[in-house]
Design goal:
Keywords: Membrane, Transmembrane, Transmembrane helix. Helix content is 71%, strand content 0%. By secondary structure, it is mainly α. The chain has one domain.
Length: 113
């Protein structure tokens, strides 16, 4: 779902001024931020699949490392929740604050299991 939303932003279906706290100043800046965001989302999907046992993890990434990375994503989503609370856009505050809070809790669970 998140990747679909980022695709809508990248294709101009969703105005970039309504994302990233309403602080993006240009399309070029949006492309940079969205590229980073899509990349991180793909990493998170792979991480969740690996921790859930649906994807064989790389032997160079033992379960303890995967748990630590899940903990890092938990912290990032917690910080993102705070950022969403400070967003200029009511839509971002109202919709994405609870979503990032849920994502933080989900990664906390993956980190602790």
């Amino acid at each position: 779902m998140t990747l679909s939303y980022h695709a809508l932003i990248l294709t101009g279906q969703v105005d970039y001024r309504f994302v990233w706290g309403g602080r993006l100043k240009s399309k070029e800046q949006m492309y940079v931020f969205e590229t980073v965001s899509v990349s991180l989302n793909l990493i998170m999907v792979l991480l969740a699949l690996a921790r859930g046992g649906w994807l064989n993890a790389c032997p160079c990434l033992p379960p303890a490392v995967l748990r630590v990375v899940c903990g890092i994503f938990c912290a990032l989503f917690a910080l993102n929740t705070l950022g969403n609370l400070a967003a200029k856009s009511n839509f971002e505050r109202g919709v994405f604050t609870p979503l990032t809070l849920l994502a933080s809790l989900a990664f906390a669970r993956l980190a602790l299991e």
